[in-house]
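Quick one:
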Amino acid sequence: MQFIVTAYDHTDNEALNRRLACREAHLEGIKSMIKQGIFLSGGAMLDSHGKMIGSSVHVEFPTRAALDEWLAQDPYVSEKVWDRIEVCEARLVPVEQFK
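Output:
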């Protein structure tokens, strides 16, 4: 199952510092997911000043429960970077097919 995850960061004064403090750990997890074929695309969402304010990712998991397991252990969740997370099932364009 493919999913679009849109996660908005907390907006308190320390939110960006928390994001930056655990960013490398988050990206290490993403690298592992890329190798497994789980992470399809994504990145940080920016405000009009270029400040990171959230993330949008496209992922593929066998079940919604598996996606929820990933979210529960991701540093951006456990370290309170992401505040509001929206998940919807998706059917993404197979980009590799058109290269």
